[in-house]
Amino acid sequence: VQLVESGGGLVQVGGSLRLSCAASGFMFSESFMSWVRQAPGKGLEWVATINSDGGDEQYSDSANGRFTISRDNAKNTLYLQLDSLQTDDTGTYYCAKGITSYGMWHTLRRGQGTQVTVSS
User: Rounded to whole angstroms, how far apart are CA atoms 61 and 26?
Assistant: First the structure.
């Protein structure tokens, strides 16, 4: 399993970024995928999940209405569109392969992450 994130950077409050995750080594088109993030000095926080065919998306309260998760199974790529970014969105964003059990996401493997920094 290999997950390689890209697209992070420095952006001002209110700005946008699009993160990408190139997946390989497993059946991407059959896998639920998520984005999780880690703010400086804090633990991992679930952001969004998309089902295998892209027909269902779930978001955390903080991401709902501002972030959009999507996927291109033909390209084995996962995306996260970040809009209306706030300083609290600063952190390392990880693409994650895992499962949903009893309504909660469980990460089995994640990439090396891409840094998002939102400045005021």
Answer: 30
pLDDT digits (tens, 9 = 90+) for 33-90: 999 999 999 999 999 999 999 999 999 999 999 999 999 999 999 999 999 999 999 9
Question: 């295998």: which residue's tokens?
Answer: 52
The pair of three-digit structure tokens given for residue 120, joined into one six-digit string? 């005021």
Cα-Cα-Cα-Cα dihedral sign, residues 60, 61, 67, 73:
positive
* Contact yes or no for 21/77 (Cβ under 8 A): yes
For 91-119, how does the pLDDT look when each residue is reduced to its tens digit (9 = 90+)?
A: 999 999 999 999 899 999 999 999 999 99
Strands (DSSP E) along the chain, which ranges?
2-6, 9-12, 17-24, 33-38, 44-50, 57-59, 67-72, 77-82, 91-101, 104-110, 114-119
**Residues near 104 by beta carbon (within 8 Å), at least 6 away in sequence:** none
The pairing of beta strand 44-50 with beta strand 17-24? unpaired
For the record, the structure tokens of 21 come out as 């995750």
